[in-house]
Here is the input.
Amino acid sequence: MGITQPSKLMGSRKLRQELEAAESKLRAKTLELEQAQEELAVQEEDRIRLETRLRLLEKAVDTVNMGVTITDLQGKIIYVNPADARMHGYDVEELIGQEARLYASKAVRSETAGNAAEPWIRRRIDATKDGHPFPVRLISDRVHNTHLQPMATVTICEDIREQEHIREALVRRDNILKAVGLAAERLLTDASWEESVEEVLERLGRATGVDLIYMSVVKEESPFTSGSSILSWTTPGGGEVEERFRQGLGLPDRIALFACWKDRLVAGQTLQGRVSELPDQEREILDAWGVRSFAVVPIFVESSLRGYLSLEDGDGDREWLSVEIEALKTAARTFGASIMTWQAKITIALSEEKYRDLLDNATDLIQSVSPDGRFQYVNRAWKEALGYSDQEVQQLKLWDVVRQQPTEEDDVVQSILSVDGQGPIEAIFVTRDGAEIFVEGSINSRFVDGLPVATRGIFRDITERKLVDRMKQEFISTVSHELRTPLTSIIASLGLLDSGRMSGDPERMQELVAVALRNSNRLLQLINNLLDQQKLEDGKMTFKDEHVEVVPIVRETLDDIRSFAEMLNIELSLEVADEGLCARGDHDRIGQILSNLLSNAIKFSPPGDVVTLSCRSARDRIIITVADNGPGIPADFQGRLFEKFTQFDASATRRSGGSGLGLSIARGLAEGMHGRIVLDEDVARGATFHVELPSTQPTAAE
Ligand code: ADP
Here is the structure.
């Protein structure tokens, strides 16, 4: 056919065009498809990548130690990781679909309200499935969709039991150490050790929060004076443990417990833990007290075990952390040191007391003088002898009490203060009242770093001895004078008679014999006095115990002494109220007493004067009074009047004869007959002596 029809031509072009269009469409579709395929491939890759990531994440969340929960907006758990379920004591499956609130402990609610807009952190007490509470820290965050709408909440949960324990232990340790600080301060310095122990134990109890804390110190050598070896302090409301302790139950068991622990404590070990884990015997003892948890820390003094500090609690789960135990050991060391210090204090106090007692009870006068003359110490005997009070002694200087000597060589003050002064030295101390005390003693000095800090002196009061010495001296001169005077006249008289020169003068010879006789009697009298004095002192004087009429004795004595009175021109006068006065005693001894008193009265009366003797009865006594108008007895001599060998004015007595024995013998005789002699202190002139004797009524037999 070779001929192309125009219509036919037009139709094929259109077809081609259509074909081309379809073709390009196809190409475009293919391209689209290819693109779509490419996209798909990319998406698939993304999906796989995401899925892998998700799996990894899930794996991580599943294996992580922290709890992770995802809850929906209604608070229902849509995901929980095994750690979280484990922590709370559940299986994962049990939890899905449950309310997350079931975790929270019934006892304690959440502490911090969350802020939903941001991730928030809070501490909460959760409870396990079987009800055990434990602290957790929670971090929560909301998850949003692409439209930023909240979809769920993710919560990470951390068990903070351990951290809290550590924090608590650190607080406890700090409190224990604070209590120990106080212990050191109080126990080592305070006067009242026991009170301080109580206070420190109380603080330790509070710091550790235990039911009971007590310290047991071995009795021997313990500083306790009360006799108890256990000091305790129990926390208020300490429950069963405290209650039993307070009642003092099972104290022997405690001692048995100490015996079980002793070896380990001696080795310095600290024992602590749960009672349930102890060996039978120990467990039973503590169980009986309701103790479930305990800690025992040994207390050492120097290096020997002296006691222990015991902490007990009714909570079996109470944990003893090492920081706490270390702090308790420090407390125990402080107690140990305090026991030592206290013991040392007591020992020092006791020995001080002993020496003070020794010094204070010494009869010697003991003093310690500083180089400036002040008294550092004087003992009781010193104060009593010198009559000063403690306060007054503080104001005194050595020279206030030592009689100054006229020359510098004899300066006793200087020799007492001198550093190399040695005993024995003699000094005269002057009492507060101005009286003199003769002392004899020794001194030595105390040096510190080569310098004298005190001169110590110990003196004996030798006043008495000095007086006796003086009296002896006087006695010897009196007695020798008394012996020599009559002897001289006896010898002179006998000599004259012997010479024969008087043979032609019998009257003169008679006179000489009389002189010799009188003086012999005087000698005999003196010797008799000496013998009587000695007999009285030895208790060997004998007395007749008879019923005697007093007036006849008085008259006899007056008759005997009349010639002596006449010789000195003294008149004797007798006043008798009742002639029949009777006394119980010894006739001769009564006469001897009266004779002594009368001879003194005559001797000391001025010539021409009267000596009066009177007798009367007064109740159950007979009183014989001898009175004169002489010089009387000086007041300061009256106290010593009746002592032997005492004479107020020896030379005056000597003139008239006398040995200082008359009154001493008279008193001894009166007392030997159950009577007495008193000097009448009320009379204005002269001396008046009263002799009192027991009165009697004559019996039919006598
Ligand atoms: P003597 O034998 O020396 O007289 P006494 O013991 O009898 O000893 O007396 C002691 C001292 O007491 C006398 O030396 C004298 O100082 C004093 N005295 C005793 N009697 C009297 C008196 N009647 N008047 C004064 N002084 C007296």
Notes: The chain has 20 helices and 22 strands.
